[in-house]
Structures
1.
Amino acid sequence: MRIAITGATGFVGAHLTTRLESEAHELVLIARRSRNDDARFRINDLSNAEQLRELFTGCQAIAHCAGINRELGEQTYERVHVEGTRNVVEAAKAAGVEKIVLMSFLRARPNCGSPYHESKWQAEEILRDSGLDYTILKAGVVYGRGDHMLDHLSHALHTFPVFGLVGFKEKSIRPLAIEDLVHVMRAALIDRRLKRQTVAVLGPEEIYLSEAVRRVAEVVGKQPLMLPLPVVCHISMASFFEWTMKIPLTSLAQVRILSEGVVEPGTPVVPLPYDLVPTRRFTTDQIRSGLPEPGPFCVGDLRLCS
């Protein structure tokens, strides 16, 4: 089966690529920049609908995984999430693509005051109104090799003796293993399940952020002092990290996400079929398999070193 993947060099896109490669599907990999010399990669920032149409020609399905969690230069939420999705949908129609699977966010919703959440919601609405077959996956906190959660948390634990919790009243998360998410994506793409449905995809275990940090710290051999900090402090730190780091330790969008909790969808969804419900718990083995090489943040993580 010929499948196009946008955001193919990103965390979710890369794991989906690996899974579909193992099944010998023909892939068209689309990203803003290529990480290697793989001939399947095509450079497109989703602003060129005509080129997208050419890339989508002959594809039976599209996994739309492209997204950002902070704005930088021309890469704005409006341009990537909204205009990019509109271009993907228009190109898919022109190319005769049968199915689009959209990677969205659990708490995406309108009129909530967060540009990230609202732009993700607009992308969902564009797809729902497209007339195409679609599946919208509203995922929460996803972890695994190459993610932002375990990667940054591990480096933070190797760098700082103190970990600041978001707000004075702890919120819960339901960590989702990337393998479970990819399993659902494959079912929608290949088996054509979840037709015209919006579903939430969450891990099986609800825990506080402090418990997630404790489990990761135990695996990496650290014992950080965990202190609750006002949300406004995290907003200030996130602004600084966005300005100084290539990949921010935390972004403004992530502060909003953690301050709300990540256990309930922001809008109504359809329940997942029992055989697609995620089962992997946030265990020591799962954490260890997703950790990067140990070490603190360094000068190379700063934007000035780009």
2.
Amino acid sequence: MMTIPFNDFKDQIAAIRPALEAAMARVLDRGWFILGPEVEAFERAFADYLGGGHVIGVANGTDAIQAALMALDLPMGSEVICPALTAAPSALAIYAAGLIPVFADVDPVTYTLDPRRLAECLSERTRVILPVHLYGLMADLPAIQAFADQHNLIVIEDVAQAHGAAIHGRKAGTWTPLAAFSFYPTKNLGAYGDGGAISTPDSDLAARVRAVINLGQTGRFQHTLMGINSRLDEIQAAILALKLADLDSQNQRRQAIAQRYHDGLSDLPLQLPTAPDGYEHVYHLYVIRVPSGRDELRAHLRAAGIGTDVHYPLSLHRQGAFQSHPIASGGLAVADRLTGEILSLPMYPQLRDDQVTTVIAAIRAWYEHKAV
């Protein structure tokens, strides 16, 4: 048992349990569980939160990426550039849509897709760039979009880890024709089960996405598009609508925890998370970079009852499923190096200040022992 777990939902659920039970009871009493009023209400509320446009609920974040790609009706085998350092679903969704992921290296400071490496991935088959907003920080969308415009490419944001993040006040999920969200329970806006969404400012694209995620139907039993079965259910939509009201305050708490970590660790030989000027980081994860001894530090924290994780221990091109896929011609040295050095510390809004202090003290104790 961890004294300080890597993640913990007990306090979060306890704080809103009466409202949760009322929301679920409302769905059960209505007896309408798929494509009903709760999904419609959440889609409207989330679109308002983002600042307008259309939101379409789906079953999970992986499906959100796949359906967004399918809605574009690209030639089979088209290539999609995505970062090598991300969760496997980013690439699995590309493959599920009948397309080919091409892995690009990441920036050594932000860990997000490095726009300077995009040209190395370009081919006559390239159609899409899928930047991943990683750990709560947005990728460099202005530079990525500029490259896409130059080469007539489409950009789709993977916003699974950055609900509420922004660049110069403009929220993640609003910069591109399509954006994909995950509401996995650990996300900044998390369901208590699986869930996801796609956002778009384009009415025609929204209609195509709605058809794609509902078996390709444009009318009942009228399957005019190739589609999948991926619909956000009513209970999860009701939960998400309830939790959406607190998303900004929960993100502010994450930022306060991150500041405590920064204040307590900044004099150690670590690379701490940073955000470029004008970027709002919402700290889905608090990931430090340990140039030497990452696994030993992690073992020390485990012995102290502190949970940690590694996001991610293998670059995607090192995963067996993707080893035959193309990569940037310049290689993926930054992503490969990061996988051996990054370490995710406990980060969730219910983490107490004294628990953060304990984590800091344990890390400092390891460095003091190491120096002896």
3.
Amino acid sequence: MKPLVLAICIFAFPAAILAQTAAPANAPAKADSKKPVQKPSSEIRRSALKTVEQVTPIDEDPNINLTAEDLEIAKRVFVGTIACELGNSVTLTPSTRRPGFFVVQTKGARFSMHPVESRTGAIRLEDPKRGALWLQLGNKSMLMSQKLGQRLADECMSPEQITLADELKKNPRPGLLDSPVSATGNAPASAPTSPAAAK
């Protein structure tokens, strides 16, 4: 009898231990086994941009020194909120830290820019750290990401640019390949003949 009770105990004891340690099949999973919630890429991008700005804002970068010509260009930059195509807008604000620098903002992006010499005569602002460019022409402006290779905002027009664009529609400027036109609107007269040639 004792060997029988002993045998039952030997077999029953491990089964009882296993029953206590095994989790029920329908028990909820532990909190630490859950996957971490991933942030959307746009939120990650925004936090990365903030980190870059907090580390070294471009208008505090001692390696960037503006020339007198750069400061003159900065005086011609249109500031304020400028309407662009497709309902977009770009806001340009002069920096409170250093003259000649601008904060350029559009939906989802913020840049700190300064004037850069342009061979074409266009006003050009750049954020070299973030690879962004603001190009201000006579009749429109655009914001480009050189890193992405695309325009972030196009056909942006300040009130002054709208006025010039309307004027160009009424009185278009001649193209490079057009023949020159005199002030009277006629083709240039041929060179006058000399009296000797008239004889």
4.
Amino acid sequence: MSVPAVPFLDLRSGDDAADVRAAIDRVIASGWFVLGPEVEAFEAEFAAASGARFAVGVGNGTDALTLLLRAADIGPGDEVIVPALTAAFSAMAVLAAGAQPVFADLDPARLTLDPGACEAVITPRTRAIMPVHLYGQAADVPALRALADSHSLLLVEDCCQAHLATCAGVPVGTTSFGGAFSFYPTKNLGALGDGGAVITNDAAVAERLRRLRNGGQRERYQHDEPGLNSRLDELQAAVLRARLPCLAVQTARRRAIAAEYRRTLPAWLPPVAQVDAGHVYHLFPVRSSDRDTLQRHLHAAGIDTLVHYPLALTEQRAFASPTPAPCPVAERAAREVLSLPMRPGLSDADVAAVVEAAHSFQKGRVHA
């Protein structure tokens, strides 16, 4: 039986196409393109959806993290603990704030920041802990918050892959200093370009973020402090407003696809564990000691896959250190993890094709 092609991504508008088009036309007709009513409305709607009092729209997810650190007065001479496996932009945001990222190893089940490994790298210069809710699964927020409190540190959450995710029933980003989100087109809530936001429950932090994103201006031409030019534009805010009402249904579909993968994938291809029911499945990674061969096999069968991420941050030249902390869990995961197709638009037949191709890989090896 021929296997249908299953692309990893399909960023074309689907059921929301008419709403997105209407949102774009509305902004064009208004003649207002930066920091206007669409941004204000989206900030209120996204804050409500995320369980927070405030949301502040910014240019992208990296800027969201950088500005959140800046709002916490973290900068030169400070250290921020970051998990050793994540997108490099998490650590680059720390550098952009003027601080130094320090890498800690992962919980071997979740593949998120391990509280024990995190505690081992705390120094007198440590100012914050930055868990990343990788693949859409929350890190152990209660344990990390307790660790941060015990050392008088801030907890700053990278929620860029975790829209609507919860940890022990509590929305991510709502019990810490704040949470940073990305609306890059591939995210669970994606714009038609770059975009980001910070959520917080602190009115003073939200107000400072609004200044920092706009050159540190208190009002026009009144710059109270150095800031960035990082503003979510009206077009992207309008698109996000059109798509936000669909996010809960799309998240439910992602969870249903994940459940089917977990039920039907071969036992020798274990998915990264679901530790919390609040997982929103931005990605669906599996682990294989023969990852690269498996990827080639799936590609030949018409199944697109991606590797998130092929190098731990401890192995990246951009973060080279003369005395890197050992992070064996992260470094092994970087060699083994493979992301299968995961998007709401996958049909049941698409999911079955992915599973069939995975089973055929092992059969071929047995009979080789």
